[in-house]
Amino acid sequence: MLQQILDELNLGLLDCAAALLHLQQLEGGMRMMPETNVLDSSISDIVSVIPKMVRYRLSVGHKHGASKEIIKDVLVDESGVERKMIRLVDIRNEFTIVELPEGMPEDIFQHLKTIEIQRQKLDIKKINANSNKKRANNARRRKKRMSRFDSKDPEKLKCKELA
Fold this sequence. Notes:
Blueprint: H1 2-9, H2 13-26, H3 36-49, E1 53-58, H4 68-79, E2 87-91, E3 96-101, H5 106-114, E4 116-117, E5 120-121, E6 125-126, H6 131-150, H7 154-157
Antiparallel strand pairs: 1-3, 1-6, 2-3, 4-5
């Protein structure tokens, strides 16, 4: 859950730890600052325990009879990933988004493309981290463009009046 929050806010683990420490100090929960080497070692231990996650799109969804349990079972059986390491199983009508640990071997990735759930191929694809940013920028541009056209004022439309 923490990794998902860090990804959404585009923060590093160290920044998050510093913010939490600051909040705890403001609430009076901590009277003294720990030594810096104690803090550094505990953060490095946490970083080594939390693997980096990668989002994938599977071409199976509710329409194909997919469920979280079925998807997790197939991923565990076919890729060898631990069940507890499968995160964010977001099943939509046509597809599913899952998070798996980084470093999936290419041969397993290719194998997962051919696996079927309810006669529908998984056709797994890696989702680029920048794809949501592009969509957000396009939405902002469309909104700005549309607000300009909502006005009847020729100045805002940036066109000349016909005489």
